[in-house]
Write a structure and sequence with these properties.
This protein has 414 residues and is an alpha/beta fold. It has a seven-stranded mixed sheet, with helices on both faces. The longest helix has 20 residues. It starts with a helix and ends in an 11-residue tail after the last helix.
Length: 414
């Protein structure tokens, strides 16, 4: 089963069925300030679904072989809009919801709504697969049987960064600047806790939160950073909130170190760094472009570029529909509850190596690579990105088991 995920999943449509497809629904931002992020995520999911279907679909055992059918909805970064989209997706027959790029507040609302729906409608249950929202509470005290986290959570990512900062004596004074919502507050919390444990000598000289997606000028925030004497920003910003922050810091002549969860995976970040020419942006993900010794991801990235015309940046998002197909094969069923049970403790091979979905809290144990956006030097950074002469330098790599944290999850199973 594991090898089938990357080399092809199965054969023909379900014979004799009224509907020979299994429906997934993508719910993420496709308009507004983070539309480019949502469109890139959608392209990853579309590519994986098309690849699975081109190779036959998913084998549901006695139910036959089915292809995946992807519906798409705009979350508009709104919990209310996302819940309306969820109901529309269910009404259209979707049984798996793919989300994560709308922020943890929106994703949490979707998870809660799905759980309530499933309790009332056992004949139309849905599973929520979260590819990018990394609030540890989603697999901790707010865990749900119907939710599966396919991205390393905040605590795992911050542990990888803290281990790297431990070996970076240049970091002496840190400022916490984050978006004012659940994820931003978690990034600040774990930043202070885990970096503080790794480097007790680091001084935390300030903390600020700003509205998500609404700040046009970060100069007032950066003036506080400068006045505090910080040399490092621990920021969970993403999308335009990251690029605008970088531009404002460059305009102010501030040469800061930034520690972030997935900045390089968002369009425009490398370009912003190349134009700024000041600062070092270090981030952590399961893979980065130009990473050495990653032939499976390299092949996937090349195929994705040819098919979509976009740069490939997130193996975990491509992995998400493949995870569904693997679970269908394991369950030998198209019933959501059986698929969800099959997902628990599911191990499978991916483009970034073998991974396992931890059963106790539904957290995927995914490897993480700490890397820094830097100029091409022909050695550590061999390839430019986004049409620039800047790319990614590998700083450290960690296995999923190395970063695994304890959990507060008290899973209630139906």
């Amino acid at each position: 089963m594991a090898a089938a995920l990357m080399t092809g999943l199965l054969a023909a449509p379900q014979a004799g069925a009224a509907d020979s497809s299994f429906k997934l629904a993508f719910i993420d931002p496709l308009s507004g300030p983070f539309a480019s992020v949502g469109e890139l995520m959608l392209a990853h999911v579309q590519f994986a679904v098309a690849d699975i279907n081109a190779k036959g679909g998913a084998n549901a055992g006695a139910a036959g072989k089915v292809k995946l059918d992807l519906l798409q909805f705009d979350s508009k970064l709104s919990a209310q809009e996302s819940q309306s989209a969820l109901q529309s997706a269910i009404d259209q027959g979707a049984r798996v919801i793919v989300t994560g790029g709308s922020g943890s507040t929106v994703v949490a609302a979707l998870i809660d709504a799905a759980a309530k729906h499933n309790e009332r409608n056992p004949d139309r249950q849905v599973i929520v697969l979260n590819h990018s929202s990394i609030d540890p509470d989603l697999t901790g005290r707010r865990c749900s049987f119907w939710h599966f986290q396919l991205e390393a959570n905040t605590a795992m990512k911050m542990k990888a960064l803290a281990n790297t900062i431990k070996r970076t004596p240049e970091v002496k004074s840190a400022y916490l600047l984050n978006q004012d919502y659940a994820h931003g507050r978690q990034w600040a919390k774990y930043g202070q806790e885990l970096v503080g444990l790794a480097r007790p000598d680091v001084k935390f000289v300030g903390s600020d939160f700003h509205p998500i997606g609404r700040v046009k000028d970060f100069a007032p925030y950066l003036s506080k950073v400068k006045a505090a004497g910080a040399d490092t920003l621990i920021t969970g910003n993403w999308g335009q909130d990251m690029t605008l922050l970088l531009r404002a810091a460059a305009d102010a002549g501030m040469n800061l170190r930034y520690y972030n969860h997935s900045a390089g995976a968002f369009p425009g970040t490398v370009t912003a760094m190349s134009l700024a020419k000041l600062g070092q942006l270090t981030w952590v993900a399961e893979w980065h472009p130009g990473q050495a010794d990653t032939p499976k991801v390299d092949a996937l990235a090349k195929a994705f570029k040819v098919k979509s015309g976009k740069d490939f940046l997130a193996p975990r998002i491509d992995m998400t529909p493949r995870f569904v197909a693997a679970a269908i094969e394991k369950a030998k069923s198209l019933e959501p509850i059986k698929i969800a049970r099959a997902m628990e403790d599911l191990s499978f091979d991916t483009s970034v190596g073998p991974v396992r979905m931890r059963a106790e809290d539904h957290q995927l144990l995914l490897p993480q690579v700490v890397n820094t956006i830097a100029p091409v030097d022909g050695k550590a950074v061999k390839v430019g990105y986004e049409g620039t002469n800047w790319g990614f330098r590998t700083d450290a790599a960690f296995g999923g088991n190395e970063l695994a944290q304890g959990t507060e999850c008290k899973m209630v199973r139906p």
